[in-house]
């Protein structure tokens, strides 16, 4: 079983942009209904992702936290396009930027559409307690806030968030993502 250990952060400023080593557009959609994931009847999210000219089927366990089971299987590009267009309830679009800091890769997702304005930095770790660099542009950690999970951005996009949800200061907003 594959385990992904990933931490998510907001970005504090745009200083990361000067260190970008590559960027790639990403389009993804969910094959398991988003509502089934939110109401607890699904045990995993199943998504189709296209990044550049490559495509994958991704299955990730539905649980809070930084470590989750994850499986990724390559898909033919044309099949992925068809699946996104006909089997998914919508498509989430973002640009993923790669930034290396002291040998560590940060993936910075800049969302588009109804999630425009949301920028999240992610880092995959070899262990949950691994230490990693904290560049000055790395902001508040949001790893345990479900509203920042891609699957939740379909039903409650960033454009609809309150000011408290955007800065993470509202306890009620934190709970909304758990429902």
TrEMBL record:
One Pfam family, short name: CYTH
InterPro entries with a match to the protein in the record: CYTH-like_dom_sf, CYTH_domain, NeuTTM/CthTTM-like
Ranges of residues in domain CYTH: 2-155
UniProt-annotated catalytic positions: 30
Coiled coil: none
Protein name: CYTH domain-containing protein
Organism whose genome encodes this protein: Dyella psychrodurans
